[in-house]
Amino acid sequence: MIEVRFFARFREELGADTEQLEAGRVNSVEDLLTDLRGRGGAWSRLFAEDQRVMAAVNQEVADQSTPLKDGDEVAFFPPVTGG
Amino acid sequence: MVDPVNYVHVQSEPLDPHREVDQLRADNPMIGAVVSFIGLMRDMNEGDKVDRLFLEHYPGMTEKALLKIVEEASRRWDLQGCRVVHRVGEMRPTDPIVVVVVASSHRKEAFLGCEFVIDYLKTQAPFWKKELTEGGERWVDARISDDEAEEKWRSDSSDD
Fold first, then answer.
1. Tell me, which fold does domain B6-153 have in CATH?
2. In A, which residues are within 8 Å of B126 by CB distance?
């Protein structure tokens, strides 16, 4: 399984903070984004191609080409605003 | 962890900037300069009065990201230590949000290291601000100027 997590505005607008996805269905961050974008509603709006989305795989900043495998923790969040 | 004088911490308790400076420089006679940055909560943003600030973070990743940033600063400059303590949860105007303290033998490295760490923290560490204004709650948008501040270090070739 792959664990997918959402933070901040994404978590609130999606009404979801985590979900489990069967490994093998998606092989990269890009695959996963395509899956999320295809769900309609807030999913399609937040993950539209022109939106700024940050991704992390196993708690390291990732990009679209980062591969995914069983046991990975993937997170999506808006640009960060700490400090 | 690699270098014991590099320390990062995320806490919901109020920050004490003076304590962080004292902790970093204690018992190290090699330190000749300490530069600190304290980020504070303002009561105005985007023209609106802000009563409260809520800081969310990504536990686990946040600490890793901060450690990576201070280790990169230590790689670029000859530093005696670097300490980053960031607050999360609910804050009020005038509360410190983050304290960055950098120590070195001479001031130039400490100034550069401190600016580098806060510039990277602003764009790389997973924290998100939500404000409470008279009009209700709203998530704070990332600033383009923060991206530009970080970009400057990427193009800077003087990373001796």
1. Aldehyde Oxidoreductase; domain 3 (3.90.1170)
2. 7, 54, 56, 75, 77, 80, 82
